[in-house]
Amino acid sequence: MENFQIASTGLASLDEVIRHLRMGDNVVFQVRDIDVYKRFVMAFIEKNKETAKKIIYIRFTQHAPLLMAMNGVEVFPVNADHGFEEFCSQIHEKITSEGRDVLYIFDCLSELLDRWATDTMIGNFFKVTCPYLYELNTIAYFATFKNHNSYHSTAVIRDTTQVLFDVFEIDSITYVHPLKVWNRYSPTLFFPHVMLNHHFIPVTSSGDVAALYSRLGEDDENPERNLDYWDRLFLKAGELLSSSDPASARVKERISQLSRIFLTRDNRILELIYKHFSLQDILSIKSRLIGSGFIGGKTVGMLLARKILTQSSELWPRLLEPHDSFYIGSDVYYSFLVDNNLWKLKMEHRRTAENYFEKASCLREKILQGSFNDTIKTKLLRMLEYFGQSPIIVRSSSLLEDGFGNAFPGKYESIFCINQGTLEERYHHFTEAVRKVFASTLSVEALAYREKHGLTQIEEQMALLVQRVSGSNKQDYFFPDLAGVGFSFNTYVWDAQMNPNAGMMRLVLGLGTRAVDRLEGDYARIAALDRPQSMPYDGLRSFKAYSQQKMDVLNIRHNRQECLSIQNLMDQGIDLHQTKLAERDLETEQKIRQLGLDRKESWVFSFNPLFSDSDFASTFSNLLQTLETAYSHPVDIEFTVNFKSNGTYLINLLQCRPLQVRGFKDHRELPQEILPDRILFKSQGHFMGGNISTSIHKVILVEPHAYNQLSQSEKYEIARIIGRLNKQIHKETTTVLLLGPGRWGSKIPSLGVPAAFAEINRCSILGEIGYHQTGFLPDVSFGTHFFQDMIESEIFYLALFPEKEETVYQLDLLDNFAQLLDIVPEKSKLSESLKVYDLVPGQLNLKLISDITRQEIQCFFC
Predict the structure, then answer these.
(1) pTM of the model as a whole
(2) What positions does the domain Pyruvate phosphate dikinase AMP/ATP-binding occupy (predicted)?
(3) Burial class (CB in 10 A: 0-12, 13-18, 19+), 604
(4) 147 versus 202: which is more confidently predicted?
């Protein structure tokens, strides 16, 4: 027979009824009035406060406190307004620190509905908290309001707790009906018990029990209790919409309430929602929601931008392709963790700073192996039935993404589902994609980003945006005609005649992945929207060298994403609208004929015809300025463009967020006269970061020609050495200029130094040097995730083209005016490629000045 450590309820007769409380019990009281629960709490405390056991009151609701501070009782306040994770974390940490054999009193759980608006999360809280309390041999008292929670959450509580009482009063007489008493039994245990003269007497007569509940007048068959409190809120909102003036105070109040529980907590975004969204808009969003909780920053940004545009002009309803999206609420992410027994591991990761990345790796692997409960699975299957075999994309939409704070550029996954095969096969691939997005919250890149920005303890719920991929079938492939990113403010102007306020874009053929990533060995088209024909590389070589050669597509025959040659697709007879987007390459066609090859036409996708023969640039400039005006802040967008049979086009606006810019500093005057032999470099345009004037303390230089002679392994070694140097930089006190050939961050050593962003993020100024003869050419990264990382790390960017006539390039002056450090003395070949210079205090100062107005940058000794 098992030995249990028993405890008292404080009511001797009730102890006899249930064969005493046992350490480890979670005890739930279903009550109609909080004062009834309070009486049981006080009896429990009065009996146990003189024992050696500690008593802690977990206080989190608005109702009057169950008890005041008293000897032997600690009150531990928790703010439920900060969300499920923070709430659970604080309580979990308290339970952990207190250890075993503690007695707990919790406020009424039903009142959490006012904060979280969903029964699901109350059930999740109970599922993750009570087993932990049981494990630590505690006794914990909880209460819920009878018939206030859904059947589902009530069932979760019933299944999890050890003791469940239904307590009610009739004619001032108290009745207690034990509904569950785990591992204990008596012939009368589960009858209602009436309290008379401090004794609990079972009511065993069927007629008496029926009369009792008849007088209580409860309707346990209330159909609304099949619904989560969440759904009931929206049902009532729908009733209000049909019966009230859309501009009434009650409607506005309901818009405010619903916006705060499932759209955003960002007050600046909320102001835009109140201005532009109607109650009908909010209910329409809810109709596409799977689960409950927030829909996340990416989703809100997309919906809000579309609403702003369609309200601003009759033009946009005609030009915008309708979106066809579903939203998976953030509570689904938490429920997934709870259902797969991962919550304890998540809490361990959250509170273990020294093993922050190691714990994350274990949790990430377990997330990839998890499964969804039947309720969510059914809803996901219905969604997939709706989409049919159209390709879809699963996009992260976390609470912290795409607001007026951190952008999280490329830190979380977005995954295409080609969506072919049977429904079960499609469900398998879809849920695999969802798990990957969930797991990406724990990637090294995401965790490092959150750590750097002080967000490790901030609740980061992952919602999902599921979108029908924009585009059409073209033989075995599916892709949009064009995709890109746009910016209402152009911080990378390369021509003094350009107006930064006109905006710019980064444009590609096919899927938009190539617009947001730095392309390995390929180029997106960069266009300033007021001068779209001007290219950043004018004056170097034909634009052909900087045009897009490959494109990303979805292969619907083989169910995979592919990167294919543009020429290969045209050779298959696939129409890429080349007459609208490209220019004939007559020189190449002539060479092909001379070689006797079969190809008929060759095209260079410069996009010049699109800009010269249509209103494309002015339309996007208008779109971006409309959004910037509404946001009172620069914005950036992601979009696709598809051509209709009549030659016109439709825009699919996929994403909109405040542009993460640090703003321009005051105008800096360039010195009028600098001795030519003191100018390290001087360039027109090709920089990002606005006006700066700064002294440089250290220069790290990867010399392009020497680097070009290295083996591939040696080039990787150069990158690792730079990473070690980067760790030694104290950015607050040391301004470092890092210069290297081609593209920083490239994965291909032949295109640039293959250093990850984390290996260069402490430099203050990043320069890319372009030489045709070495094959190293910068990629204007404006608009990519790499660019967003630079902006948020406050790194000034510049590109140098020594072969341009107007460029002054005299890096050998460093040998004259700076101290060369021995970094790799044992490897002379590497030391020729990688040089580190210190500027000696008291000698010549190295200064960098940029003037955004004149589009000029100078670095000189003075």
Answers:
(1) 0.82
(2) 295-669
(3) buried
(4) 202
pLDDT band at 830 (very low <50, low <70, confident <90, very high): confident
Q: Give a yes or no: residue 671 inside a domain.
A: no
Show which of 223, 255, 274 is a domain's final residue. Answer: 223
Q: What pLDDT, in 10s, does the model give residues 499-531?
A: 888 998 989 999 988 877 666 667 788 899 999
Q: How many CA atoms lie within 13 A of 659 on its CB side?
A: 29
State the residue range of the domain holding 637.
473-658
Helices (H) and strands (E) in the chain, counts: 30, 39
The enclosing domain of 594 has a CATH number of 3.30.470.20
Instruction: Say which residue the tokens 């299944």 belong to.
Output: 159
| Domain stops at, among 427, 442, 469 | 469
SS3 637: strand
Number of folded domains in the chain? 4
Indicate the residue type of 861: F
195 and 257 within one domain? no
Sign of the dihedral through C-alpha 94, 95, 98, 103: positive
Q: How far apart are CA 731 and CA 650, in angstroms?
A: 46
Q: Is residue 665 part of a domain?
A: no
410 is a domain residue: yes
Question: Helix/strand/coil (H, E, C) string of 230-274?
Answer: HHHHHHHHHHHHHHCCCCCHHHHHHHHHHHHHHCCCCHHHHHHHH
Phi, psi of 680, deg, nearest 5: -70, -50
Q: Which tens digit of pLDDT belongs to each residue from 267-317?
A: 999 999 999 999 999 999 999 999 999 999 999 999 999 999 999 999 999
Residue that wins the pLDDT comparison between 492 and 837:
837
- Identify the DSSP state of 832: H
Cα–Cα nearest to 507, from 640, 622, 395, 413? 640
For residues 604 and 743, state if they share a domain: no
Is position 670 within any domain?
no
